[in-house]
Amino acid sequence: MNKLINEIRSNRNTDRVIKCDVPLDIEMDVRYKGQKSTNIPNLSENTLLRHFTNLSRRNYALSTTFYPLGSCTMKYNPVVNEKIAAFEEFSSVHPYQSEETVQGSLEIMYELEKSLCEVSGMDNFTLQPAAGAHGEYAGLLIIAGYFKSIKEKRTKIIVPDSAHGTNPASAALAGFEIISLKSDENGIVSPENLKAVLTKDVACMMMTVPNTLGVFEKNIAEISEILHQNGSLLYYDGANLNAVMGIVKPADIGFDVMHINLHKTFATPHGGGGPGAGPVGVKAFLKDFLPVPVIVKENNKFKISFGDKKKSIGKMKAFFGNFPVLLKACAYIKALGGAGLKEASEQAVLNANYVLSSLKDKVSIPAGSVCMHEFVLSSKGHLGDGVKTLDVAKKLLDYGYYAPTIYFPLIVEEAMMIEPTETESKQVLDEFTDVLLKIIEESVSNPEILHNAPVNTYVSRLNEVEAARKPKLHW
Amino acid sequence: MNYIPVNEQDRKEMLDRIGVKSIEELLALQIPESLRAKKLNLPEGLSEQELSALFKNYAGKNKSNLVCFRGAGVYDHFVPSLVDEITGRSEFSTAYTPYQAEASQGTLQAIFEYQSMICELTGLDCANASMYDGATAVAEAVLLAVRTSRKNKIIISSGVNPEYLSVVETYTKNLDVEIIKIKIDEKTGALDKNVLQSMLSDDIGAVVVQSPNFFGVVEDMLSLSETAKNKNALFVTIVNPASLGILKTPCEYNADIAAGEGQVFGNRMHLGGSTFGFLAVKKALEWKIPGRVVGQTVDKNGKRGFVLTLQSREQHIRREKATSNICTNAALNAFAGCVYMACLGSSGIKELAETNISKARYAFNAIKKLEGFEPLFANSLFFNEFVFKTVKNVKKIEKALLKENILGPLNLGAFDKKYKNCLMFAVTEKRTKQEIDKLTDILNRA
Ligand SMILES: Cc1ncc(COP(=O)(O)O)c(C=O)c1O
Questions:
Q1: What pTM was estimated for this model as a whole?
Q2: Domains in chain A, start-ordered, CATH in brackets?
Q3: Cα torsion angle, A69, A70, A72, A76, sign
Q4: pLDDT digits (tens, 9 = 90+) for B360-394
Q5: B261 vs chain A: nearest CA distance in angstroms?
C-alpha cells in the first residue's frame, strides 16, 4: 500500500544514528527554547529502506527507459563519474579550506573552465551558477554591468517567442523589459523582424541555437551584425549545445555571453530536478564582470582569486558552484576528448534525423524535414476525435517510454519535442518510432484507450486541476 | 571512451533511411560553411581505467578527511548510510524534473514528503521543492517579501552569513529594492530590538534575521519578530535546520517566511556545493512562493497521487511575470535531506540538536579555560558555533592543527579586519570528546 512516511507507525527501538559522548548540557532561557515537537515518526532502517526503494520503483528514469525529453538532453550518465564524484577526497573538503589543501578540486575546476572555453570559443567562464536559468541570470547581470560601466542606458532585452520560459523570466529578474520577437514562418528569427523591433535601448537579444524547434538559425551572422551595429550584445542559451560541439562555436558566430547546462550537454544526471550547473562564458571584454571568486593558475599552483571586485556582478551563490556536477562534466570531457565530443554531437544529429525521417509523413513537422539534435512535431490534425498530444504522451508511458516534451515551444500547436540523444541505439529508436506511430493510429481507431491512458503506471491519469484548486502541499 | 551504441552498419542504415550520404551532409544542409568550427583542441579521450587514475591523482592533491572544526555555513555532520543508498539509486538520480506525473510518482512523493518534513520542522504551511542553496533561498525570500508586502525596503541583519548577503546584493542590484543593513551589537553579537525599532517605519516591507547568526549567536527571535510585526513588516527568518530540535521554530515566533541552507541534513561539504536551499511560507503566501511545488491529488480511480502544482506561478507559463526564473533546482540534495530527516525521526532531530549544543558547550568551556583565549560574546547563547579572540598567532595555530589533520576554526580576520585574531569554531555531533580534547590541547600549546 502507498503510505506516506507519517502514516507508518513509529517502530524504532534503540538504533540511534548519533551518540553524545560528553555530558548532556542543554539548559537555556525559555525565550529561546522551542516547545513544539515535530511529527516525523521514528522508523527503523529496514522500514525506511523498503519505503524509499518502493518509491524508486514508481519512477521512470534514464536508467530504466528511453527518455526522449526534448530540450533536456537526457543522455547516458556515465556511472564511473558517479564513483569518482563520491571520492571522500572531494566530498569531505570544506569550502573555506586554504587553497593549498584543495589543489585537486581547484585543478578540476580550472581544467573544466579551459575545456568549456575551447568548446564554446569563449575566453573565460564562471562555474558558479547552479543551473541554466541561474546562468542566464548571471549572464544578463554581466551585460547590465557592462552597459553601466560604459554609461549606456539600455533597458530592454529581445527574446524570440520560441524561447524557453526561463529566458524572459531571467531578463525580468535582471531588471530588463522584455520585447518578444515573433519567429518567421520557418520558426527562426528573421533579420527583418529583428530590425523592426530593434531600438537604441536594447541591451541584448537572447537566442537558443539551434533553437527550440531544433533548427539552426541560419541568419545568425546577419543577426549578430545587426545587433552589434546597434551596440547591443548577443546572449546564447546553451541548452542545445549538444547539437554543435566541435561543429560550431557560439563565440565564433557572434555570441558575447552564454551559459552551458552541464546537466544536459555534459552528461551529469538531473537528479529528478537538480542539482545542475550553468557555467557562464564571456568574451574577454566582459571578463571583469564575472562573479567572484575565480580560479587562476600561477606558478603551477591554483589560486582562488577575487580579482577586481569593483566590476564583478558579485556572487550568484555561496562558494564556488555545484562541485560534484562540475567534476562529472570534467570527467565526461576527459573521457570523450575533442574528437569524442564532436562525434557525440554528430550522432545526436543523426539520431534525431533518423527518428524524424520515420515520422515526417505521418505528422506535421512545422520546421521542415531536417533538424539538428531534436525536432518538434505537431500532432494537430493527425489524431482521432478529441485526442490531444497530452493523450499521446500518456499512452507512451503505457508502453514503457518516458514522454517527449509537450506543448513547448509555445509557437507550435499540439507540440511534441523529441530529443533522442546520441546514447540511444538504432534498435531503441526503431522500437520507439513504431510505438509512436501505432499510438497515432490507435488514436483514430480507438481514441478511448488514449483518453484513458496511462493504465500501466503506478497511478492512472492524475487530476492536476483539482491539485491546484485545493492545494494540499504537505501531509 | 564514448558512450554511443551505434556501430558503422547501423549508421549506414540510418543515413540511407534519411537519404543522405553522411552526417556531414546533414550538417551542411543546415549550417553555413563560414560558421563551422575548426577541430577542437582538446586531448584525446581516455579509457575508464585512465579516467579513474587521473581523478585519483587529482584526489590525492586534496588534503581531505580532516577533523573539522570549521563551519560558517557548511558543516561536517554525519551522513547515515541509508542516505547514500537511497539517493544513489539511479531510478531517482537519473530522472528529470517530474513533468510526467504518472511516471514520476517516486520523485513526486519523495518531494512531497520533503516538503512535509520542512513544514513539520519550521511549523510553516508550505515549502517549495528546493532552491539552489541557502544563499539563493535567502535572496528569493527577500524578493518574495518585496512582492508580498509591495514595499521595496527590506531591513536585513548584518549577522546574516556574508555569502548570503553578497547573493542578496547581486539579486537585488538591478531591481527597485533597497537593502538596509542593521548592525549587530558589538558586545552581544546579537541584534538589539531597540535599534530595530528605531529603523522601522511604514515603508519597510520585511525584516530578515538569521538565527543562529553567522557568529553562532542565537537571536531573540520572539522580540525581534514582535517588533517587526508592530510596524506591519514581514518577518523573514534564516535558520539552521539542525538547531530546530532545540531552538524555537519559525512558527513559534510567527515568522512569515523561513529560508536556509539544507546541507547540514544529509549532504556532504563537497567544497560548498551542491547543497540545497529550503524555503517555507505561511499559507497566505503559497501562491507567491518561487519554484516547484508538489501537491497531493487523486487519479481517475480515486487513488492518491502527486503532481507538480501551483504551476501558474512559474516561468514556463508566466514567462517574465513568473515568481522566479528557477527551473532546475536541487532536487536530489533535498531528497538527501528528506531521507536524512526520516532516518532521524522526531526524536533523532531532537537528539541531533542536543548533541550539537552539548558538544559545542563542552568545547567552548574547555577553550575558555585556556590562557590567551577570550570568548568574543561571552554571555550570549550559541548553538554549535562560537567565536574566541586570541592573543596567540592565528597562522601558527592553523598550521599546528593541520599538522595533526585538524581543520581548525575559521579566521574571521581574513574576512574583516574588525575581527582580527577572532577564531570561529564549529562543533557538530560528529566531533568526539577525544577530538575536542586534542584540539584544546594543541590550542594550549600553540
Ligand atoms: C532552452 C532552455 N533554456 C533554458 C533552460 C533552463 O535550464 P535549467 O533548468 O538548467 O535552469 C532549459 C531547461 O529546460 C531549456 O530547455
A1: 0.98
A2: 79-336 (3.40.640.10), 345-461 (3.90.1150.10)
A3: positive
A4: 999 999 999 999 999 999 999 999 999 999 999 99
A5: 10
